[in-house]
Amino acid sequence: MKKVLMVIVALAVCMIVFAQGQQSVSTPVASSSSGNSFTDSRDGKKYRTVKIGKLTWMAQNLNHETADSWCYNDDNSNCEKYGRLYNWNAAIKACPAGWRLPAREDWNELVQAAGGDVAGIRLKSKTGWDNNDDGSSGNGADDFGFSALPGGFRLYLFQRANFGNVGINAYWQSATENKDRAPWNRSMYSFIDSVAENISSKDAAFSVRCVQGGTK
């Protein structure tokens, strides 16, 4: 119950509106390949990559330092583990040449390729997620090598930085805005098998996964 309340409070503060239920369990699971990597020439950091469906994704959260990006709790070791947290204006420019911030359609394709309503558990890493209140594991199956980790979020509220939900939730920015210019994002939870679609403030700082192919 404690974790559920933490998530509810965090999402209320973020002004995040859930728009779940768009994925279908009956969607065929796409094939994938792994074992490739990419080195970011800007800082020499190396990332695993994985092809899921028609898209090639970084299989780790981006960890390139830019303005308006942070390590969780301002602790550099969290950047090494979870990557950096970027507000939307930083995220839209953060990916290296040849890569881009995924659009809403890219995330939709990923979720469908990974099984729809069970995509969360299939994309989450096998380790790194907190156990749930009932003692069950929050870890996933990592069937595609996407290795999603729960890096939490950063918000600036009441004249101070607020970090939350590391170990419990993962949030990722997308390049797509809704009609009110609020960006869509995606999230996963230790206690839910699906992938949620949300709307958030541009000031909210979330993880970034870069992608190749598909929608531009």
Largest β-sheet summary? 4 strands, antiparallel
Strand content: 25-35%
- Oligomeric description of these chains: single chain
Estimate the global geometry from the Cα principal axes.
globular
Gap from first CA to last CA: 41 Å
How would you describe this protein?
The chain is α+β, with helices and mostly antiparallel strands. The chain has one domain. It is 18% helix and 28% strand. The protein has helices at 2-14, 76-82, 88-91, 104-113, 119-123; strands at 17-18, 32-39, 46-52, 55-58, 69-70, 85-86, 153-157, 160-164, 169-177, 183-189, 192-199, 211-212. It has a four-stranded antiparallel sheet, with helices on both faces. It has a four-stranded antiparallel sheet with strand order 2-3-4-12. It starts with a helix and ends with a strand. Residues 1-34 have low confidence and may be disordered.
